[in-house]
């Protein structure tokens, strides 16, 4: 279905791909039919099959990214491509290209910088039981650590403004990139939106590139690193609490015995408990110092974000499908 109200917008469809020859041709063809005025970019990440050939034959602009990993591909895309609106989607056919206008409409009507297509039923069946459990676990952990802005931090179907794309300091190299995007938006309190979209299954013979345990461990590590960078007082405070608790467990019996007898018979244990207590105090001081540094970095990021022009007024007037309600992070379904 053609949406003529988008013709005066510069829209880029970004598709990072690795060995998706079975699906990429259909994905590109459907995006070109749905958004004829958009440019479709497929960045081939060292595929060993005919992904690049199928994408080019379907009308996509194909670029090769030799650094392996989705995060590396997205970082290259964001640096290379100029547009008013960016739509990022996986090339495995699990997201419907026909939903793109609705996703863009959520971005525009919500005056957001990022809109996320949350996946209906993904926690019920994400291909494997491990994936479904991981989705529930990491989304709950995200809400606990960074806020309640998102309900599906791993969705690969997102729309962005140029302001978001050009101010996003992508660091991660793999599947952690969606988590990093979400934390960036939460840290700077950027306006974001969500809309529930159908999530399909891969076709027969197409395999997921996501490893339940290996990529789960990478994502967990990314959570820890992002917490250290954006919530250092909380991060080091937890470490300090653990060492302080260990110190008190070791110290209490010795203090009780000293009060009763005036003797300290277990000197090595006493020295260890004092060392743990001092280490806990160091973690508190470290957290306080890095918290000030983190606030300064966040202010610099915010200033750089604001230095990038927002959407022209004419773009904000468009409405394509049903409007989405805005929240500080707004959610539409």
TrEMBL record:
Q: Which SUPFAM superfamilies match?
A: Nucleotide-diphospho-sugar transferases
Provide the E.C. number(s) assigned to this enzyme.
2.4.-.-
- Gene Ontology molecular-function annotations: glycosyltransferase activity
Q: Which domain of life is it from?
A: Bacteria
Q: What class of enzyme is it?
A: transferase
The answer to whether UniProt assigns keyword Glycosyltransferase to this entry is: yes
Instruction: List the transmembrane segments.
Output: 235-256, 268-290
Q: Which UniProt keywords apply?
A: Glycosyltransferase, Membrane, Transferase, Transmembrane, Transmembrane helix
Domain (Glycosyltransferase 2-like) ranges: 13-165
CDD domains recorded: DPM_DPG-synthase_like
Q: What is this protein called?
A: Glycosyltransferase
